Amino acid sequence: MEEHGMDGRILGYDPSDPQSILEYAERLEGHTLREMTDAKKIADSKRRKGSFGNAMEEYYFDYAPNSSSEPDFAQAGVELKTTPMKHVRKNDLVAKERLVISMIDYMDVVNETFETSHFMEKARDILLVTYLWEKDADPLDYEVIMADLWTIPEEDLPQIKRDWETVVNKVRAGHAEDISGSDTMYLEACTKAATSENRRKQPCSDVPAKPRAWAFKASYMTAIEQGLLDRKTGAGTSLARKGQDINLLGLVRERFEPYFGRTEEELAQHFGISKSLNRCARITKRILGVDENSKIEEFEKANIKPKTMRIKRNGRLKESVSFPYFDYRKLEMTDFEDSDFHDELLQKYLFVIYREDEREDGVYRLADVMFWQMPDKDLDEAKRCYDQMRQNVREGHAEISVKSTENRCCHVRPHGQNGKDTRPQPHGRPVVKKCFWLNAGYLSDEIAKALF
DNA sequence: GCATGATCATGC
DNA sequence: GCATGATCATGC
């Protein structure tokens, strides 16, 4: 069979056969587009978002990029998605960004069911081409990591369906303007052109809403991609048995409920955990029923980190919550959106909540669990804190912190071994190691809002 | 050896 | 009682 591309050349694959498309795509693994095509430079000379994907369609698969609602390989019913991974500390590869599937049409989506939705149509058969992103590199020189035919794993469908319904139900309730990426676990409704004044109509309200698209969260993509990468090893522990409906919070709560009301000491004794600083973190893992060192698959996919929260009798958190320390020189050079702090704030957390006993001072009892992620609106406040600290560093005053009284959500405080544990700053003498903290008062309010 | 979760100590 | 500087200590 001969198939012809844009300029009449013979295609290297059969566009009606998914297997043939996959095999052709797999030849890219370990190579770059510059090596595998005759492309000399990217057509849109500015490296815009999507230029790798466009170049791949045009120069490797030999078809004109389109944005129609037809699948990219229409005859095979396969959608081509290219997605970047990046290196992070200790040689880990993570998804660089979310994978956007399709725009959400607020007017139509309210009449859809998940199973027959436009989203599922687009997400059902994906040719996923993963490449290694490198700062300042020409997209033609990105190395292709792997090519796979991918569909949503069966065990993830219940959570993704729940995510889809969470979003659609907000539209049905006439609150499309209140949708937030933090509403959901794996699938999110992310904003498109959020900075512009662009707004769309919604069917059940006159309030205009930001345009949004269905996307798999970056944390979910990381789990998917790592799973594809070490498919052979098949490591990992799953909280849910196959075929069992997954409701993460329900599942987690079910595990914790028998222990509500018990004190830290009782729990430590029950699980045979010695007196140690991270005693509560270890109790959490034991209650979740997983080996202390193993990762919990669902938590990885949803990028959920357990955190212990101790609430004093007066309703306030005993302590603020710290993040890893930051590098003053890196802080000066890095915008908030590209910072580690920003990544940390996009995490979803499992708060394991202990409350102080009504009578006995200093005795804390396991009281509740909840998921938490910083709401989008508070990210702006966190950015203010970041920018203010950045400004201090610019002016050679890394020793000046952002106080918790100056910012509603977070502050800056020392976090080193001792006063001698310093880090260089770009302009001036080294300063004691510091990190960002979430304000105890802010978190107290967030917890109270969620639980009462 | 160091990063990080956790906690202490001081002063207002 | 809280804000904030400072330090401890486990585990990787």
What this model shows, in words?
By secondary structure, this protein is α+β, with helices and mostly antiparallel strands. Among the domains are: 18-173 and 218-230, ECO RV Endonuclease, Chain A (3-Layer(aba) Sandwich); 323-350 and 370-451, no CATH class. It is 30% helix and 21% strand. It has 15 helices and 17 strands. It has helices at residues 18-26, 33-36, 51-60, 106-109, 118-123, 157-172, 218-229, 248-256, 264-270, 279-287, 297-301, 328-333, 340-346, 376-394, 440-451, and strands at residues 79-88, 92-95, 99-103, 126-132, 143-150, 187-191, 200-202, 205-209, 212-216, 304-311, 321-325, 348-356, 364-372, 410-414, 422-423, 431-432, 434-438. The strands form six sheets. Strands 2-1-4-5 form a four-stranded mixed β-sheet, sandwiched between helices. A three-stranded antiparallel β-sheet has the order 3-9-6. Strands 10-12-13 form a three-stranded mixed β-sheet, sandwiched between helices. Residues 232-236 and 240-246 have low confidence and may be disordered. The structure holds a DNA duplex (12 and 12 nucleotides).
Query: What Rg is obtained from the alpha carbons, in whole angstroms?
Result: 24 Å
**Strands, total number:** 17
Determine the number of helices (DSSP H or I, runs of at least 4 residues). Answer: 15
User: Beta-strand level of the residues, as a percent range?
Assistant: 15-25%
CATH-derived architecture of the domain at 18-173 and 218-230: 3-Layer(aba) Sandwich
- What is the overall pLDDT average? 84
CATH class of the domain at 18-173 and 218-230: Alpha Beta
Strand order of the largest sheet: 2-1-4-5
Shape assignment = globular
